[in-house]
Design a protein that fits this description.
The structure is a homodimer of 419-residue chains. Chain A is α/β, with parallel strands linked by helices and 419 residues long. The first copy, chain A, folds into three domains: 170 residues, MoaB/Mog-like domain (Molybdenum Cofactor Biosythetic Enzyme, Chain A), CATH 3.40.980.10; 79 residues, Alpha-Beta Plaits, CATH 3.30.70; 156 residues, Maf protein, CATH 3.90.950. The first copy, chain A, contains 15 helices and 17 strands. In chain A, the strands form four sheets. Chain A has a six-stranded mixed β-sheet with strand order 2-1-3-8-7-6, with helices on both faces. In chain A, strands 14-13-15-16-17 form a five-stranded mixed β-sheet, with helices on both faces. A four-stranded antiparallel β-sheet of chain A has the order 10-11-9-12, sandwiched between helices. In chain A, helix 2 packs parallel to helix 6 and helix 10 packs parallel to helix 15. The longest helix of chain A is centred in the C-terminal third of the chain and has 24 residues. The first copy, chain A, starts with a strand and ends with a helix. The mean pLDDT of chain A is 91. At the A-B interface, helix 1, helix 2, strand 2, helix 6 and helix 7 of A face helix 1, helix 2, strand 2, helix 6 and helix 7 of B. Strand 14 of chain A pairs antiparallel with strand 14 of chain B, so a sheet runs across the interface.
Chain lengths: 419, 419
């Protein structure tokens, strides 16, 4: 039986949509690397009855139960005392933790509020997962043969405690079979077309290899997952299928690997010595921020001009003022000039530009909200594309960003071949 | 008894951390506006046993069960047939849906793969929630007195079906009491200090008003929540407490309202006629993208230069080359010059600048990874701050962005008074 993990996230703020639960995804990623499977994620309210019911259910489903949230010092945080009662243990004050909490306040040159002393309360028969980065310690407790780990909901503190304390404990419990994942990133082909074009390959796969389609706007990632004692043999079998899929989807293949389009593009550009800049109007810096989120982006990316006014388009990107007046800022002429301007200003091989009405307000009769032009300038040519999206601002920004990466990737592919 | 909602998210990609479940937060937000409470969020695998167990548990806890994910045409999507068996009904092909699916492919001028015909399969005794935006229809089925809604996991299709079909149905079921939320955004004070400073006010609150602390890096949002037949009376009582908290926290009060720091800053700047630009090195456009994610940002924000090389810092922001050589790009001198340069180039009242080593690589002996300078230039002065963060690139970028907004907000507060 593989070791089973359940994640319980405690917090009204998640149930009310105040916070997106990104902790669970991060935890699941780390566990995958240890060949451990998350079988269930539960999100519940800061309420005693909900916590007790979730613990009961999780104990039936999983071997290890990772609980995040509800460890703060304030009144709404009841996780610790509910758990102590559930485990039939007491909370006792840990002097080592207390000294650490006091020290954190001393370092910040602030007096420590008395309620913070409670942060040093830990399970009498449990283990402390020391939290160097914050005042709420992690806790570990074994109950009815199941292990419970408690961590604060603040992402960087949770990640620290997971990395320092919980993952090492779980590594020992990792199952014997090795999970192998092989990824194939495709672009510009829809999920169902992709599925149809490779259905014979999929049908040939043995039961111990599962394939999943992970679609996002404009891209579909395929993931082959299997588990075996002999990871190398399994991987090479899976790579055989992956290569057949690559050949089949032909120009829609981007790369092997668990990356986004920009994560596939940057290494290709780097290894070819290409440089990149952006001139962003409606995307407002989102393309630049997506690129620079990737370590080593500086090897390729030189920068961006976010031009949120016509004046800035002229002043920093040398877009002709009369063109803006004549054609409007959201036009093929202007977006082309932005891209060409950025290509020259940043002296790069490729420059992407965007200009559109992202909404919800704005737009003209000819170019209503959702009308978006993008352009890619090389040293010799400018390519443009026109899109008509809806009026959800953030979706429009995301779609435009993806389309820019797609356009760039297509041009790169044409330039450097299909590999 | 208030109407209870459970969200079930189906997908291996979430349990394996491939995707962050942002759908649930969005759904919860919409339901909150209808005074409906999400009591539980469950994430499970694309497996029959997990789906059946989740349906069983959800039926015990909730009145309405909203299921997202697993409606695609590909082999890994088993939600629909598992549900049909569970409900004791059949899947039948809906000709109206089939025509719509065929039409979508026709519009895209693509042949329809045969497996897409299955997208038109719906529950024999259920209701179709028509999906104008995609090929997978939403489905509605009542079983054992509980209502199940099925929606695709693609966010914009899910949002469309929720808005068009599910929310109108749920609105009728909304409970009689009205939920009232009052928010208080604070900045620059930690959760526990905040809690201690207002603990007497919190203690005075009646049981029907609950207060939650929603901390993020550098900010804490307080949410007062209550429910009453007389929403106006409750709101005015809650606003009384909120005003006392505002006075108590004094300079740490930012605004009433469920917004982030940038969401509080932009309206203040707009109403005072102030303009803003950014010059970003280590944040790579993230500050600009956070600002421009807000509708109407163009009233305040003129643009940004993302300067990822020294040459661009000189060429586009007029930073003195010799200063970069002498002090290094990550220095008080250079970040000040970037801010001052952006203030002039964009001709704005305020310009934010960042320069630092976000990691994981880079850094110097004097300025290791995590060393980050920020600056805020007005027409007459430049304010700077130095931070020493750790080596997680994305956290460093986020922290730096928050610190920039904090610095800007503090200067705005000094300029225009405390309200």
């Amino acid at each position: 039986m593989p070791t089973k993990i359940e994640i319980i996230t405690i917090g009204d703020e998640i149930l009310q949509g105040q916070i997106v639960d990104s902790n669970s995804a991060w935890i699941a990623q780390q566990l995958l690397l240890l060949n451990l499977a998350v079988v269930h994620i539960t999100t519940i309210a800061d309420r005693e009855d909900a916590i007790v019911a979730a613990f009961d259910a999780a104990k039936r489903r999983a071997d290890y139960i990772l609980v995040t949230g509800g460890l703060g010092p304030t009144k709404d945080d009841i996780t610790k005392r509910t758990a102590a009662t559930y485990f039939g243990t007491n909370l006792i004050r840990d002097q080592h933790v207390l000294a650490h909490v006091e020290n954190i306040f001393a370092q910040r040159k602030r007096a420590m509020p008395a309620i913070n002393e409670m942060q040093a309360d830990v399970f009498e028969n449990g283990e402390v997962l020391f939290n160097e980065l914050g005042t709420a310690p992690g806790l570990w407790h074994i109950h009815d043969g199941k292990s419970f780990a408690f961590m604060p909901g603040v992402p960087y503190e949770m990640k620290h405690i997971m990395s320092q304390h919980v993952l090492p404990k779980l590594a020992k419990a990792a199952n014997q079979g090795n999970i192998v994942n092989v990824y194939i990133l495709t672009a510009g082909i829809g999920e169902s077309h992709l599925a149809e074009s490779i259905q014979d390959i999929e049908a040939e796969m043995p039961d111990y290899i599962r394939m999943a389609y992970l679609p996002k706007l404009g891209i579909v990632r395929l993931r082959l997952t299997g588990s075996s004692q002999d990871a190398d043999a399994l991987r090479s079998e899976m790579e055989g299928y992956a290569n057949r899929i690559k050949e089949r989807v032909n120009e829609h293949f981007v790369t092997f690997g668990d990356v986004d389009l920009e994560g596939a593009i940057l290494p290709i550009m780097h290894s070819n010595g290409y440089t990149l800049a952006t001139a962003e109007s409606c995307t407002g810096g989102t393309i630049a921020s997506r690129i620079t989120a990737i370590p080593g982006a500086g090897n390729v990316f030189k920068g961006s001009v976010v031009s949120y006014t016509n004046e800035i388009k002229s002043r920093l990107l040398d877009v002709n003022e009369h063109d803006i007046e004549r054609y409007g800022a959201v036009s093929e002429q202007v977006v082309s000039a932005m891209a060409a301007g950025a290509q020259k200003k940043f002296d790069v091989d490729f420059a992407l530009a965007t200009s559109g009405f992202a909404g919800p307000d704005g737009g003209t009769e000819d170019a209503p909200v959702g009308t978006i032009w993008i352009a890619l300038a090389t040293k010799t040519k400018v390519h443009t594309r026109l899109f008509h999206f809806q009026n959800d601002r953030n979706i429009n920004i995301e779609r435009t960003t993806t389309q820019c990466f797609l356009l760039l990737w297509q041009q790169l592919r044409n330039l450097i071949g299909k590999e």
